[in-house]
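Homework help thread (please don't just give me the answer)

Our assignment gives two proteins as sequence + structure token strings and asks us to describe the second one. The first is just a warm-up. Here they are:
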Amino acid sequence: MEKDPVHAGKQRISDCIRVPLPLLEVTGGLMLLATLIWYGLDARNLPKPFNATDIGAGGFRC
């Protein structure tokens, strides 16, 4: 057991799929942008409040 190499049973990093960091950053940014747009479009489709003078989060202005 002590004679086994240190890397026995582990996958080497060179065997993994490699993606350039700029490509990964752009892909992640586009995914976040798409999520933001989807969220914004869903928020615009919410119904208007029945009572515009009710106290909500926007009613507490300093």
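The one we have to describe:
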Amino acid sequence: MTEPNNHPLYVRYMEAFSASTKHTGTCTACQNSQDCATGEPIHTAFAKAQDAYQARQSAKRRS
């Protein structure tokens, strides 16, 4: 079994994912793919964290 990923980039990605899903679960506007004023920065942070993490993973695979 592998150890859990605790790289700071992964941790930020998972925290952003958690915040985004928590907000979407309680916000009707965001459930309909129309980010509300509160949700937009939360979802944007998640997207940026996801992109950064996936870029890191891709770079690791190439090396």
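TA reply:
I won't write it for you, but here's a hint about the kind of observation we're looking for: Helices lie at 8-26, 28-31, 39-62.
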